[in-house]
Amino acid sequence: MSKKFIPKGVMPALVTPFTKDGDIMEEGFREVIDYTIENGATGVVPAGTTGEFVYMRTEERKKLLKLAVEFVDGRVPIVAGTGQNSTKATVALTKFAADIGCDAALVISPFYLRPSDKGYYEHYETVARKSDLPIILYNIPQCTLGVLNSSLVEDLVEVDNVVGIKDSSGNIPHTLDLIEKVKNKIPVLIGHDECFLSAIAAGASAAILASANVIPHIWLDIMDKVKKGKFDEAMQLQHSVQTLSRIITRNGGAPPAKAALRMMGINAGRDRMPLNTGGTLTRELREEVRIELEKLKLIKPLQHPDLVKAVDMRDLVSDYGVAKDSLGDMGIGNGANDIVSASVISGLADGPLGEVFVRLLTTPKIGYEALSIILEPNLRVRPSSLMLPMRQIRSMRQASLFYGPVQSGAAKAVSELLKSNKIPEEKIEKYVMIMAMDVDLNSRDRRAITHAAEEAVSVALGEIWR
Fold this sequence. Notes:
Blueprint: E1 9-12, H1 26-38, H2 58-72, E2 79-81, H3 87-99, E3 104-108, H4 117-131, E4 135-139, H5 141-144, H6 150-156, E5 162-167, H7 172-182, E6 188-190, H8 196-202, E7 206-209, H9 216-227, H10 231-250, H11 254-263, H12 283-295, H13 313-318, E8 331-336, E9 340-348, H14 352-362, E10 371-372, E11 374-376, E12 379-380, E13 384-389, H15 396-419, H16 425-428, E14 431-439, H17 446-464
Parallel strand pairs: 1-7, 2-3, 3-4, 4-5, 5-6, 6-7, 13-14
Antiparallel strand pairs: 8-9, 9-14, 10-13, 11-12
Helix pairs in contact: 1-2, 3-4, 4-6, 6-7, 8-9, 9-10, 10-12, 11-12, 15-17
């Protein structure tokens, strides 16, 4: 049989939506297919790695392939994931895919028990010869524990029906080696999302990606810009999706891709056990996925309360059991910008403020936990200082902002004040400071948050230590 199918463009490695009980969710599968095609996908790849094929029985994979043929209805080519551990089973499933109308097969190398290079060759040669369907070789050594090296692939491209190789190794030198050796005979498809731009710029002509369930249009745009020589624009686009790609690629593919699709209103269903657990995609990662979708304008951003510009520090410390009239003449300052605000109070460590300082550390309120301000581990600033969030911490992302860049910026501000000798030397050890701080939760740039925190605290400290 002559080689008819030519892989091109960007094809999503389709997720498989499952119900809570683990059944294939047919309507959800249709929604995913429709979304990807409407956003430019040049083909679809059901029952692949991202489709959780390893958790399916052969009959379930057949059902999924039938559904794909029905739902796609000829709009784009279908590349069926048909790889199995044994050659005989792979031939049988590939023949089935051909019989029901699939256009090609993506065949993963045998896994678990790794064959020799000769075994790989004979496996692929047999599948290609007996199944009567164009075959795309699939190199993903992190899952199969074996590599399809370039010399082996050079031999396999001479086999009729081998029409491409998908390289998901994430190893750019290996991808380039494949492109150099076989580009003029078969297309090299990039299968590792983080390496997309590098591979396309080097000559890879198509892609099968997990993240293409979510952003096929962006990958196609990058590919188009590379073809037109607009490398700077392509690079900027790759950078804009790099974090999302990394989360999807390094966390099982299906769980983060499905989470993203659900946030976008597409019923992508659940994963199958053991992927369907809280440890596979943590709440923190889920929140990062949401943030990346907001950046890409694929979902509307959550509305957060406005930045609290300042608080009455005397009221705040009196809430911890110290009468206002006992606070005496303490230093109070406020500083704010569009990203961070800081209200600071300073007083004697052996006085009423010192009592509040101790209570904040020993009896924290849930969601308002105070944290010592440090320059680096085990190196606290002087005077001893605490930072306290003005709003309740409700997620790990909020905590990472307050107890990350905000804390770092506050520490830098105190350090700079000490360097400039603006704090009387006798007060450095005898005083304490409490800082009530807030951050704009719509902020995304952690460096900008650190700088803004340093600026706000510096202004507040300037009002105290004139």
